Amino acid sequence: MRFRLLALSFAIVATAAATVQPGERTSPDRWRVKVETSKGPIVIDVRREWAPHGADRFYTLVRAGYYDDNRFFRVVAGRWAQFGINGDPATAKAWRERTIQDDPKGESNVRGTVTFAFAVPNGRTTQIYIALTDLSAMQDAQGFVPFGRVVEGMDVADRLNSEYGENAGSGIRAGHQQPLFDGGNAYMDREYPRLDRLIRAQILQ
């Protein structure tokens, strides 16, 4: 029994260590990001109280320039617009396993909310979607917790090219994203040349 408890303790410590990432920054309580896209600008209002781990990870990635020159690889008209696989395969790979802990359920996935995508519990890394409609009935119960909301440019999000739908990588859970990680922007630009681009994400002062 003693050995079993000791093993369990080590497992808990190991799991906790795996979710604490060096260099992670604590975000302000409330801040905004301007996302410049090939269709125009989108402004996201981030509320740390909604999802502290998600807000901190987004803050870390934006400050690092991770989202600059990304592709909106999963856009389904009237549902969601997803991005967050870096165009450089080495960078995408480096962040792919840097998971963060889940945030408790809070705000609903209504139209305009911005949320991290994930496949397994405590598995969020870099991929984000903008809800193009009310997704609360589908996403809330599964643990998708918004960390912000689009306050300017929702019409831009609606116009992002959706012709490829789920074919250009789909969601994390579908298991079809490996070519995007392996080939980066070169692959996406060759196979899906009309994907819209996220040119730059910057924090508004």
Strand content: 15-25%
Find the CATH topology.
Answer: Cyclophilin
Distance between the termini: 56 Å
DSSP summary, beta strand count: 9
- Indicate the structural class: alpha+beta
- The domain count comes to 1
Helix tally?
6
- Level-1 CATH class name: Mainly Beta
Uncertain segments: 1-20
Radius of gyration, in Å, reads 17 Å
Mind summarizing the main beta sheet?
A: 9 strands, antiparallel
Per CATH, the superfamily is: Cyclophilin-like
Tell me, briefly, the overall form.
globular
Strand order of the largest sheet: 3-9-1-2-8-6-7-5-4
Tell me what you see in this structure.
It is a single chain. This protein has 205 residues and is of the alpha+beta class. Helix content is 31%, strand content 23%. It is built from six helices and nine strands, in the order H-E-E-H-E-E-E-H-E-E-H-E-H-H-E. The protein has a nine-stranded antiparallel sheet with strand order 3-9-1-2-8-6-7-5-4. Strand 1 (30-37) and strand 2 (40-47) form a beta hairpin. The longest helix has 18 residues, at 2-19. The radius of gyration is 17 Å and the shape is globular. 40% of the residues are buried.
How is this fold's topology laid out?
Blueprint: H1 2-19, E1 30-37, E2 40-47, H2 52-64, E3 70-71, E4 74-76, E5 80-83, H3 89-96, E6 113-116, E7 128-131, H4 136-139, E8 146-152, H5 154-159, H6 178-191, E9 197-204
Antiparallel strand pairs: 1-2, 1-9, 2-8, 3-9, 4-5, 5-7, 6-7, 6-8
Index terms:
205 residues, alpha+beta, Cyclophilin, 6 helices, 9 strands, disordered N terminus
